[in-house]
Specification:
about 280 residues, single chain, 2 domains, five-stranded antiparallel β-sheet, Alpha-Beta Plaits
Length: about 280
């Protein structure tokens, strides 16, 4: 068994606790006068049993986030690093996603998110200017953050874009993708729902929502989404391949091997070579 400071079991067991703690921290900040989207710098501390873990984590954060990080230091039998974020627009959801982002990054480098907090003056609060910048500005910032690996920064900006333009389906779709990467699949599903509610024929959202449903046991719901794609006109070939292939997977999960094989074979006939493995394994 791998010798880790933070095991996968520890990570999964602590996930819900981190969400609850973030909720408590935000509630206390609200009681102190914080208003939604107040631009706030958060300080944070990671710990690990190995210096190299924190050195690697520090290098990663410096490269992918606009944060400042101090030198790794030893405290008794443990190593720690401290840092500070850039200004982030704090809301209940934003704080939670920032915490989950840091919690996830810590785990990836076998370190634990040990503490965090944010100081603000309730009498002097600054906010993002939603009048000067259009939704496209924050959407582009959200995509840029995502491409850099700053997942929470992506959500901050995409959420601001939605505040400005709550009817833009691409923003909901993009935020759903990021939320799912932070293991909040139910919240991701809600964003896909909103995108599809606005644009019922949004092919990529239907396929992604179907995949998310399948991954979480809603096989019949996944089948409905894939079938909806296949009923649409002018669907591009790659989407058809994916819809047939995924439909086959969900049919297999529903113990319908015959329909599963038929859909994989259809995907293969459209050029989806990746369906061959499924066919050779399940369709003998």
């Amino acid at each position: 068994m791998e010798d880790r400071f933070i095991s996968w079991y520890n990570f999964t067991e602590g996930f819900g606790k981190e969400m609850s703690l973030a909720e408590d921290v935000f509630t206390n900040m609200i009681k102190s006068g914080l208003e939604d989207n107040c631009l706030t710098k958060m300080d944070f501390t990671f710990i690990s049993d190995k210096k190299e873990n924190l050195t690697n984590l520090s290098d990663f954060i410096k490269e992918h986030y606009s944060y400042t990080i101090k030198e790794v230091k030893k405290c008794d039998d443990i190593w720690e690093i401290n840092g500070e974020t850039n200004e982030i627009p704090l809301t209940r959801d934003n704080l939670m996603y920032w915490v989950l982002d840091m919690y996830k990054r810590g785990y990836e480098f076998d370190a634990g998110l040990d503490a965090y907090g944010g100081l603000f003056d309730p009498k002097i609060q600054n906010f993002p200017d939603l009048k000067i910048f259009k939704a496209d500005h924050y959407f582009n910032m959200g995509i840029e953050c995502y491409n850099m690996g700053d997942l929470s920064g992506s959500i901050f900006n995409l959420s601001l874009a939605i505040t400005i333009d709550p009817k833009d389906v691409d923003i909901y779709y993009s935020r759903a993708v990021v939320k799912n990467e932070l293991y909040t699949w139910k919240a991701a599903l809600r964003d896909y729902d909103l995108a599809i509610e606005i644009s019922p024929d949004f092919i990529n959202a239907l396929i992604n929502r179907g995949s998310l449903k399948d991954e979480n046991g809603d096989y019949s719901g996944a089948v409905s989404d894939y079938q909806k794609v296949l009923q649409l006109e002018n669907v591009d070939i790659e989407s058809l391949q994916q819809a047939y292939f995924n439909l086959g997977n969900s049919m297999l999960n529903l113990n319908n091997r015959e329909d599963a094989c038929r859909n994989w074979e259809k995907a293969l006939s459209l050029g989806a070579e990746y369906a061959l493995e499924r066919i050779s394994t399940h369709c003998k």
